[in-house]
Write a structure and sequence with these properties.
mainly beta, four-stranded antiparallel beta sheet, three-stranded antiparallel beta sheet
Length: 77
């Protein structure tokens, strides 16, 4: 039964840890997981909807680009 996600809500933001790497790059990782809830709706036309919770983690780097911080997140699978 096909479904689609119609909205995401952050329930709890993850804690973050920062470490300065070589070349003025800052590594960003989650020190704890956050939580998000997705609202899903059945595509079958029944209009039934529900929420599912997922854990949220962050991993990536921050670099200065034109004097502004730019966060690049690592993608999972």
């Amino acid at each position: 039964m096909p479904v689609k996600v119609v909205a995401w809500t952050i329930v709890r933001y993850p804690g973050l840890s920062f470490a300065v790497d070589a070349g003025d790059v800052v590594s960003v990782t989650s020190s704890g997981h956050g939580a998000a809830a997705g609202t899903l709706v059945r595509s079958s036309g029944t209009g039934a909807s529900w929420q599912e919770a997922v854990t949220v983690g962050i991993s990536g780097t921050v670099r200065a680009v034109d004097g502004k911080p730019v966060l690049s997140l690592a993608r999972r699978g």
